[in-house]
Amino acid sequence: LSMMEWIEPPKRERKANYAVDAYFREALRVSEPKVPKAPRPPKQPNIQDFQFFPPRLFELLEKEILYYRKTIGYKVPRNPDLPNAAQVQKEEQKKIDDSMPLTPEETEEKEKLLTQGFTNWNKRDFNQFIKANEKYGRDDIDNIAREVEGKSPEEVIEYSAVFWERCNELQDIERIMAQIERGEARIQRRISIKKALDAKIARYKAPFHQLRIQYGTNKGKNYTEEEDRFLICMLHKMGFDKENVYEELRQCVRNAPQFRFDWFIKSRTAM
After folding, report:
1. Class of domain 18-114
2. Is the N end or the C end of the chain the one with fewer CB atoms within 10 Å?
3. Bigger pLDDT: 247 vs 12
4. Domain 205-267 top-level CATH class
5. Which DSSP string do the residues of the chain spell out, in sequence order?
6. pLDDT tens-digit readout, 131-153
7. Which CATH number is 123-185 given?
8. Domain spans of the chain?
């Protein structure tokens, strides 16, 4: 990061989508764990927020739930943790008391909307997608598509487009975005190190002999300059961003004749 100017990204704000938010907040009871879950109709569809159904579906489901509570005579309990508990209780109860059943047209619309989300994406697919974004960065869609098992590249591309457009509807979006951004910062750091390594090696005709390291006051007591020079040059030669590069580097150290009797460096692990 020291090689480039750091531009602070703007603060992320969650777009409020009340139909979706209210449905999942109540279903998961994210913010109010002490209050028991209110009853829901027995045959409610199993919907996950990462399946990105149309927001209108949640309005219809909410209407269905409220009317069901009205039919069983449900009374909203008061939540002592809320500052205006009585007012909230009154408003929630009024919603139930004023609720109406779904019309035949709305029922038909609901069934149609239930087919318009990513119904074939489960939690495992979603987690693989998030981990792939963390590993490769959000723009490397080809590698991301390869990481999600059982999904074609076209399916992943379509899902990715909707995910980045509507990700603020997810209940856990802060944690998910922090995870992806951590991965992207690691990728940027690797790119910076690779550039620095290329620039350093390019200064010398025979870097294995000529390369000089300016330690300043940071010189550790364990590695010698000869060892450090070998590690830097060999890392560049093998490719810094290659997978298992440190395991291979360890093997090169063990085979190098100049370190035949150097117990310290030969006993180092890949880590």
Report:
1. mainly alpha
2. C
3. 247
4. mainly alpha
5. -TTSPPPPPPPP-PPP-HHHHHHHHHHHT-S-TTSPPPP--TT-----GGG---HHHHHHHHHHHHHHHHHTT--PPP-TTSTTHHHHHHHHHHHHHT--PPPHHHHHHHHHHTTSS-TT--HHHHHHHHHHHHHH-TT-HHHHHHHSTT--HHHHHHHHHHHHHHGGGSTTHHHHHHHHHHHHHHHHHHHHHHHHHHHHHTT-SSHHHH-----TT---SSS-HHHHHHHHHHHHHH-TTSTTHHHHHHHHHHH-GGGTT-HHHHT----
6. 999 999 998 999 999 999 989 99
7. 1.10.10.60
8. 18-114, 123-185, 205-267
